[in-house]
Amino acid sequence: MGRLNTEYFERCIKTLREAHLALSAQPREEILYDIYRAACVKEFEIILEQSGKLLKKRLKAYFSSGKEVDQLTFKDLFRHAARHGLISLEEAERWMVYRDNRNDTAHDYGEGFANETLRLLPQFLLDAARLVEVVGDES
Predict the structure, then answer these.
(1) Who's near 6: CB < 8 A, 6+ residues apart?
(2) What is the pTM of this model?
């Protein structure tokens, strides 16, 4: 299998990292805090969606047909990645927490959701960077 193109994914990670840094430099009462917080939440969502797409492509080598992989849910993708040793079980569990958090966005765009997402970001950034290695591996 050839290396998957992760340029967009990596740019999103960099954007999230920068937005998160800028957010931490802002007082909560400033409008810039709200702007950077919104940027963080949006990049979190984009990275999460891209992670599933990239992992799906990476997992196709482990299945008899691409159709089987295409039918997997987001969480199943990460379960299979752990089963095949691409990521650890702990990483897979964290990606499921990230997905659950993302699913909550569909119902709650309030401050509570945003703050929960912000709490997840430091580890999420590490896990996303690790996923770049996993999907970019040529083995």
Answers:
(1) 54, 132, 135, 136
(2) 0.89
From first to last of its 139 residues, the chain has per-residue pLDDT tens of 567 899 999 999 999 999 999 999 999 999 999 999 999 999 999 999 999 999 999 999 999 988 999 999 999 999 999 999 999 999 999 999 999 988 765 555 566 678 888 999 999 999 999 999 999 865 5
Q: Structurally, what CATH architecture does the domain formed by 7-136 represent?
A: Up-down Bundle (1.20)
Half-sphere exposure of 23 (CA within 13 A, CB side): 21
Question: Going by C-beta distance under 8 Å and a sequence separation of 6 or more, which residues neighbour residue 57?
Answer: 4, 135
